[in-house]
Amino acid sequence: MAQPKSRFLYIDLLRGWAVIVMIEVHVFNAFLIPAFREEAWFKVLNFINGLVAPSFLFIAGYSFVLIAQRKWNDYLSFNETFWKQLGRILQVLVVGYALHIPFFSFSKLLEISWQQWAVFWKVDVLHTIAVSLLTLLALVLLMRIQKKYFAAIVIIAAIMIFGSPLMYDRNIDHIFPEPIANYFTAVHRSQFPLFPWMGFVLCGGITSQLFVWWKVKIEEQKIFRRFFIAGIILIVVSLFADIVPLTVYPAHDFWRSSPGFFFIRLGIVLMLLSTLWYWEKTAQSKPSMVSIVGSESLTAYAGHLLAIYGMFWNNKSLAFIIGKTRTVPEVIGMTLVLIAATIAVSYVWNRIKNWSMFYARVLMYSILTVVVYIFFTNSF
After folding, report:
1. Does residue 2 have a pLDDT over 80?
2. Contact criterion met (CB below 8 Å) for 143 and 152
3. Alpha-carbon torsion, ordered 16, 371, 27, 197, to 10 deg
4. What band does 284 get if pLDDT is binned at 50, 70 and 90?
């Protein structure tokens, strides 16, 4: 029987809660009657929902750098550990693109126009996570020294955050083809271009690096107290800066590309991270259903999206068939059902992996083989 790897529970908890709330976001977006979105309570919910992606991205960078510090020499020597890490990151990128395939049929894809491929090239959260982690991995090889590595992350993060108002809506099709341009701007409706979303991944890496350095000097409790206070400071300073009548940038979308709003959300994420660490230590909490979802976040993320948007019903998705026709009680019920299903799948998959990685791989490759077979034989 395989022994489960030692994990930081507060990391899995933050990632797990992010996935669970993400399910609510997607269910409400896909099925709620639009009129309800104008009500006051939905604006509050929408703000809370807006913390999901920052948390998901932040914790990806945080956990990556935490692991990188332990495997630094392995990465530099290009041994098996490096190639496994690279493979995991590329797997995230492949899943990101696979979820955007316009039609689940190879023969159909050969017939569609370039315009119909547009949805495939849109950058979503998995694309941004993968490219950001590839950047962090590449910086290990380029910088080689941890202080230089940290400085490089800070510089790139600053570029992504403070350059966002200038890049978010900029058309750069004359510089890059659409598949590449979508990583930098939202002109073609990419949901998570690198400006500013990569900044959350890099800020997670910065926070993790500080944790590693401070841990040898002071107690963990004091470290996370610092993070919590830093979160409050970021929120207060950002709110104050927003009311100062000083314009640095040209007109831009405050809610999507403003550095001020970025730091407000980052501050809240730092406070959530610290709170969950405190919960883990003081409550002596053990792995829960939420943390299991967090440990299997890629499966949970892809699974719930396929449930909503997968074209399994006569080449139509539930989002298309049902549409935005459901009331609040109905979408709450649908959300709870999908959360329960996601928890169940995550739990079973986690138990199988802990029982035997060999059989887990056999199951995974068997499912993949069936999916690939259907993809190449489905005539649509």
Report:
1. no
2. yes
3. 60
4. low
- As for how many domains the chain has, the answer is 1
Which tokens is 329 given?
């009680």
Q: Flag whether 1 is in a domain.
A: no
Is residue 3 assigned to a domain?
no
d(CA 361, CA 353): 8
Rounded-to-integer distance, Cα 362 and Cα 348, Å: 15
In a 3-state reduction of DSSP, which class is residue 258? coil
Task: Name the percent of the chain lying above pLDDT 90.
Answer: 74
SS (H, E, C) 202-246: HHHHHHHHHHHHHHCCCCHHHHHHHHHHHHHHHHHHHHHHHHCCC
Residue 37 DSSP class: G
Position 73 in a domain:
yes
CA angle (111 as vertex; 108, 117 as ends), nearest 5: 85
CA–CA distance, 201 with 269 (Å, rounded to integer): 12
pLDDT at position 113, please?
A: 87
HSE at residue 319, side-chain half, CA atoms within 13 A, is 13
Q: Which residues contact 216 (CB under 8 A, 6 or more apart)?
A: none
- SS3 state at 216: coil
CA angle 55, 182, 120 (to 5 degrees): 90
1 has a pLDDT exceeding 60: no
Query: Rounded to an integer, what distance in angstroms lies between the CA atom of residue 324 and that of residue 279?
Result: 38
Domain region containing 212: 9-377
Q: What is the pLDDT of residues 158-174, one digit of tens each?
A: 999 999 999 999 999 89
283, part of any domain: yes
